[in-house]
Amino acid sequence: MTTGFSSNSCRFADYFVVCGLDTDSGLEPDELSALCQYIEATKFRDGARGHLASADEGENFEQSPLRRTFKSKVLAHYPENVEWNPFDQDAVGMLCMPKGLSFRTQVDTREPQFHSYIITREDGSRTYGFALTFFEEVTSKQICSAMQTLYHMHNAEQYDILHTPATSPLGPEDAPPRPCPPPRQIPRPQPVLHAAPAISRLQRFNSYDISRDTLFVSKCICLIAPMAFAQASRKVLQQLYRAVTAPQPPPLPLESYIYNVLYEVPLPPAGRSLKFSGVYGPVVCQRPSTAELPLFDFAMGEVFDLLGVENVIQLFTCALLEIQILLYSQHYHRLMAVAESITALMFPFQWQHVYVPILPASLLHFLDAPVPYLMGLHSNGQDDRTKLELPQEANLCFVDIDNHFIELPEDLPQFPNKLEFIQEISEVLVSFDIPPEGNLRSSDAQAKYPGGGSFRAADMFPDNRNANLASSPLHSYLLRENETIARLQALVKRTGLSLDKLDVREDASSNKDSSRVQCDQEELLMHQVNIQVREVFANRFTQMFADYEVFVIQPSQDKESWFTNRDQMQNFDKASFLSDQPEPYLPFLSRFLETQMFASFIDGKILCHDNEDKEHALRVFDARVDKIRMLNVRTPTLRTSMYQKCTNIEEAEKAIEMRVTKMDHTALHPHLLDMRIGQGRYQQGFFPRLQSDVLSAGPTSNKWAKRSAPAQWRRRDRQKQHAEHLYLDNDQREKYIQEARNLGTTIRQPKLSNLSPSVIAHTNWKFVEGLLKECRNKTKRMLVEKMGREAVELGHGEVSITGVEENTLIASLCDLLERIWSHGLQVKQGKSALWSHLLHYQESKEKNDATPGGLGPPGFIHDPERRKSDGSSAMPPLKISLIQDMRHIQNISEIKTDVGKARAWVRLSMEKKLLSRHLKQLLSDHELTKKLYKRYAFLRCDDEKEQFLYHLLSFNAVDYFCFTNVFTTIMIPYHVLVVSSKKLGGSMFTANPWVCVSGELAETGVLQVPRNTLEITFECQNLGKLTTVQMGHDNTGLYAKWLVESVVVRNEITGHTYKFPCGRWLGKGVDDGSLERILVGELVTASSENDERMCRTPPMQQSPGMMRRFVNISPNSKPKLNTGQIQEGVGEAINGIVKHFHKPEKERGSLTLLLCGEYGLVWALEQVFQHGFKSPRLFKNVFIWDFLEKSQVHFENAEQRGVSLDENWQTRVHNFCRFMHAINNTSRNIGKDGKFQMLVCLGARDHLLHHWIALLADCPITAQMYEDIALIKDHSLVNSLIRVLQTLQEFNITLEASLVKGVGI
């Protein structure tokens, strides 16, 4: 994507470069890349990975000299320098020949290879390079004899190895000592050559005879350009190469053509096409207008052909979520094509992180970078993925391009409407005869596309692997077997998409245009594939974000202060946006909205004042969004998951066809230059040494170099072109945009230079600083999100912005921890660096604790500040143990992978508020950390590590249920303790007690509790957060009366303790005669905090410290409330329920607590009915239920007497009596207060409470049983009570099963 190129450049190309062998300095091994390979090889030899490759591959280490790499140099570049794009010699040298020099003899294939590359500067602006590598005969005698000498040395070594007696493949122990190579010639393994017996290998490959063989060396010619006109540049270079190898010299000296491209060919303005002359034919390039998608000139069809649609979509999803991506191929141009295609398809978003589509061998340590990156790695012909040591795999997308294979990170969400999306793309591909499942014989694919590997499919090394793909260990994932594709093919058949018709369409268009089209037919075809596929992708985002502008939060302060506080500011109302989205989109969107690319996109939107100010991508996108809104009559905020296909493909295609049919401009033709006699000599097969005096400066009187553009391009076009990159000229805005881009990112681009240890150290230091900053921002973001209203009161953000998927934030924290733990690893083991470290720790601790003196389970901290819990002194607190928490995770059979285990362990530690403490304990084993990590690793930077642990400590301020809520199907042990009152005969109790525990996810069923201990431990499927405990006894024995203070239940994995207060009797003839009760409880928070843990935030709802009923049994002794207090109580209870339903579903607490807990609805209505209740005679308790039963009898009698009242009244009476009957007839022994609670809950559920209050207020029984001052006799108070209760009508109240068990209504 040509987003950030320098606007000052108006030339087609800035530089012409020649790279190759510098005969003056001779053969120098490519030290850095060789060193990397050497270290790898010795690592293999020392068995660091626990096993060694067979002796067959030991050859890898002692490469034959023809397979080694030597330093290439930039031999010449013209002009010397241009001010808007300073020449970067190191980067150009590395990327023109990323593998260094290669040698061949006359028996090897020597096809020229084209590849492109990109140089991204630290400010994010880009320059493109286009390189053609070919082989030239070595004429220097010194070089040939040096190669001969290397061969003599090499063959002597090989001879020793081959004649070592060995009966079996050499294992790590019995491998003979290898002669170490001389320090200057460090061999670097190239492709492993799997040829048969060793002797024949010596004869076949290790033969260079100076008298018999011709030696060839690679050379590269390259154009460096401000915009990516890949096809035009390829043609220019190929024609120059053809001129050198042709039997006849070219019409003009090569200098004329190069001078022409450098100085006389301008960039076409936006929306125009340009034709200029190569050596043998015209070259055409065209540039999209400012209203079209940005320029893209690589063959996208080839990418789909190599990977298949399904894989491209998965890779695209990974890129959008800023997951680390590593592309792997033995063809440089494929690495570049895939990387550029994926970033181009992201329109209107832009990749914000490290972007190195071709990673030179000397920069391999960048794979250690603990930041999101998109990098391409040359596979060196090694197809075996297992040999590739990658430091970070927990969150890595690995793409093996040549083998049609992709490895994805765990928990990757699906792209919205994925199936329909794949089908739409497939239809486009099928119409161009590209198989949607990809072409497994990918080496043939290049023949079809002009962007491919130029002249032949074979790269610099013959590619023999694709022919026998089945032997590859990776073929298991090949798309031929993929269900999605099978479903799609069925879909394509059903939609009646006929290939014949589509081919006809294509032929018709080619006949129609072939006479007029100025570029090759295949190039036009490439442009058509590109634009159609890109339009389909762009349409997905226009549909998905059609109303994004509504949710952009414009800053209230000026731009300066907005920038100062940028990382604390919210720029997009994520919660509201997500609440409008269809459910299936949420897993992807909630993660996408958290990315840097989305934040930068919105920042760009906030920064632009008007349309002129906008970046090109944003302007095009906004125009499309406006168009969609005009076409769609539906309200802009109501989203639909209806799939809407792309409609503007034809229009986009026409624009391109018009440009290539009618050329807007033709550049000057090449002409003879003012060269001295004898210059420009020509020798077939050799690229000449060019005359620098004529190429080093452009024409002095060039019209368009002085003026902005030739007259015929019109002033309007000039403004348009200027506007396309306007944002780069305005210094102030450029500074802002740059700052916005850098937020949250650490190091944007690796500097491609010859790296000294100090540069590497500086880079690593940048990474450490960046990780710490990211940790600080993440913890702050998560706390603000979690604390919600409290944070708003403290001024961190706005009320509406809470409720972004908590899981998304925790998953991104897990990714950050994995990146920190994989920074600077010595030797990688397993996919999760964090889990690997934990296992090492567990192993060392278990060894130490195996000594007989060790007390208790290993890894426990024996200290007085163990976790205390005020649940009850009777229940001993859980010990804090990192190892025990690991064992819990290891015992969960559902979690199969290391990455999954590490994430589960992090979630569990967060829920237990022990994450910081556990990690501190893990890192306190300094010996282990030293053994596992290099000196520069984040975990060995003491100050940063301390700050990091301190940031994590802040999570202790909030309650997370991120383990309980995610692992809903696992088995969890629970411990139940019944605390009975010792005072009143509790010890003489003879009946058999039971409990039944219910949570948000499930309930246990009845569990018998031993009478003597009153505690029980049991295992059952995760109950979720606990809500109620039903308890009772079977009323057997002499003394079946039991006074219970409370029930305490603890989750033995998370340590969460719930207390369910009771304070009532269970037994016949005592209290309300109840044999069972439903208790409502809440989480107990640790009361005595140790100094390491921060103070807790107040809980969301008030916890029932002591239940509404008191141990004093006589109702008379209850504190009396006046009518004002009672009304307030009812109002508060109703308010709590209303607030509950106004929260997002994921944030709601327990509704049971609001109904039956302390100061809940049941308590409030109890106060209403107890107010002014006439005092009963001595020693006789009268309950509200007694009053309700009498009223029921009265109503039934009235019905029987046929008292004629309105129908409305009769319905209400009928309902009231039906509910009373049902509750009275239940088989449960729940007592009178329990029955009242059940009636209130059912009345709330069915929205009948206000009707019943009205009935009872008018009932004659009320007059008998209540004093005159009673609230229920005051009509105005009763009316206001009815109005308040009516507010519950709009809510759909669902009751927990335990509250209404046994009532069949």
Automatic annotation (TrEMBL):
Keyword Manganese included in the entry's annotation: no
GO molecular function, one term: guanyl-nucleotide exchange factor activity
Domain PLAT: 972-1080
Region (Disordered): 846-874
Keyword line: Guanine-nucleotide releasing factor, Membrane, Phosphoprotein, Repeat
Residues making up the signal peptide according to the UniProt record: none
GO cellular component: cytosol; membrane; trans-Golgi network
Entries under InterPro entries matching the protein: cDENN_dom (IPR001194), dDENN_dom (IPR005112), DEN5A/B (IPR047278), DENN_C (IPR043153), PLAT/LH2_dom (IPR001024), PLAT/LH2_dom_sf (IPR036392), PLAT_RAB6IP1 (IPR047277), RUN1_DENND5A (IPR047294)
Compartment(s): Membrane
Principal location: membrane
GO BP annotations listed: retrograde transport, endosome to Golgi
Similarity comment: Belongs to the RAB6IP1 family.
Name under which the protein is recorded: DENN domain-containing protein 5A
